[in-house]
């Protein structure tokens, strides 16, 4: 089943979720690793190019996720979830979406601050629209770095919530996102 139902996540939602998770964690790890590269390292130029390109892939997936949920709404929350759990869940999801868009914008500004285009796997360039602002690259870089840590914090909350539901509450929350909820 491609589309979501009232009780289950469809294949497309699950695929976007897990691919996005893989990209977020990979981009974070590569971003940390890149900070330690010196000018003469073999990956000094290649790693940032790949980081930017996969960041664009994540942005496209995030936009696709938001559009998809307009056509195929999320399943209803499980009945055993308390009101506070539902509120926290929505807050964490919305925070992640907002912070991801802050990352996309700040990443774009880091790259294009001096008028250079942002290249997507060297296939085409996305032109700079904002340049000539003093210290823009540094300001956007600081925002990008700190927001990355906030995203990881929210990812940890998200994973902790899923594990709590699976191991303590023993409900179908995690199984629904894994596609293993045959009884839902």
Automatic annotation (TrEMBL):
Keyword annotations from UniProtKB, A to Z: Cell membrane, Electron transport, Heme, Iron, Membrane, Metal-binding, Transmembrane, Transmembrane helix, Transport
Q: What is this protein called?
A: Cytochrome b561
The protein's required cofactor(s) are namely: heme b
Which terms does the UniProt entry file under GO BP? respiratory electron transport chain
User: What Gene Ontology terms describe what this protein does at the molecular function level?
Assistant: electron transfer activity; heme binding; metal ion binding
Residue ranges annotated as transmembrane are: 16-34, 54-71, 91-111, 146-168
The UniProt family comment states: Belongs to the cytochrome b561 family.
Which InterPro entries does the record cross-reference, listed alphabetically? Answer: Cyt_b561_bac/Ni-Hgenase, Cytochrome_b561_oxidase, Di-haem_cyt_TM
> Superkingdom of this entry's organism?
Bacteria
Localization of this protein: Cell membrane
| Cytochrome b561 bacterial/Ni-hydrogenase domain location | 8-179
Q: Which GO terms describe its cellular component?
A: plasma membrane
Q: Does the keyword Hydrolase apply?
A: no
> What membrane topology is annotated for this entry?
Multi-pass membrane protein
A Pfam family annotated for this UniProt entry? Ni_hydr_CYTB
